[in-house]
From TrEMBL:
Keywords: Methyltransferase, Transferase. GO terms for biological process: methylation. Residues 44-137 form the Methyltransferase type domain. Belongs to the methyltransferase superfamily. It comes from the Bacteria. This is SAM-dependent methyltransferase. It comes from Rhodococcus oxybenzonivorans. GO terms for molecular function: S-adenosylmethionine-dependent methyltransferase activity.
């Protein structure tokens, strides 16, 4: 079942500002490349949204595929990559990836598997489309790190970071925490982004606690590699 993403689905223009600010120093992509170099390979971005990360993968990959369930975002993603002949956008979801078995090398899912438990079907589907030796990379915000994690926990008191991390560990993922810096061009952009990520009171507190244009944000990067020779059975 596709869970709506209230920030990008409702405020794609503001989320574009957020994408531009995120990981200003490229730490996440450096870590991904150290895990799997996608030069000349096939990359799939699950829940690609408006396609912000697709051109980065397209710089080196032979084929890049964005998969997204929300029609307005599909249109935005297609516009973004219209000049890139080796990038295509497909309607689909984590649980139903419209690709053949063992056809891709990297499945990238950024802030798409946030709640952990319940994501089993999506993980199984990703393993189906991966070639032996391919990698599923799940990247999500680390709610244990300050200050961003404290704002998250204030708005989601029932969210249990330890339970989420235990779920991925039980599924055979390796965890690396990657520190990043979000850097905004101006205070108004910062205010708008905080406003779509948090409740009004938490957003106001976060804005007051951020005197400049940068916010330290840590991510969880969960990596699972498909063993050579492994065949994952289809599930209906």
């Amino acid at each position: 079942m596709t869970i709506p993403s209230p920030n990008i689905w409702h405020w794609p223009d503001t989320y574009e500002l957020e994408n531009r600010a995120q990981d200003a120093d490229g730490a996440l992509f450096r870590h991904l490349r150290s895990t799997l170099d996608w030069e000349g390979k096939t990359v799939v971005d699950i829940g690609c949204g408006s396609g912000f990360h697709l051109p980065v993968f397209a710089e080196a990959a032979s084929t890049v595929i964005g998969v997204e369930p929300h029609p307005p975002l599909l249109d935005l993603a297609r516009q973004r990559v219209s000049g890139l002949s080796h990038v295509r956008i497909l309607a689909g979801s984590a649980e139903r990836i419209p690709l053949e078995d063992s056809s891709v090398d990297l499945v990238h899912a950024r802030t798409a598997y946030f709640f952990g438990p319940g994501c089993g079907p999506g993980i199984l589907e990703a393993m189906r489309v991966l070639r032996p030796g391919g990698v599923l990379a799940v990247i999500d915000l680390d709610a244990t790190a300050e200050p961003y994690g404290a704002w998250m926990r204030a708005d989601m008191p029932h969210y249990r970071p330890a339970a989420v991390e235990a779920f991925f560990a039980a599924q055979g993922f390796e965890l690396t925490r990657v520190q990043t810096r979000w850097l905004f061009s101006d205070r108004e952009s910062l205010r708008r982004v905080l406003g779509i990520e948090f409740t009004r009171s938490t957003a106001a507190k976060a804005y007051a606690q951020t005197p400049g244009l940068a916010v330290d944000v840590r991510y969880r990067v969960h990596i699972r590699r498909k063993p050579a020779g492994l065949e994952v059975p289809r599930t209906e």
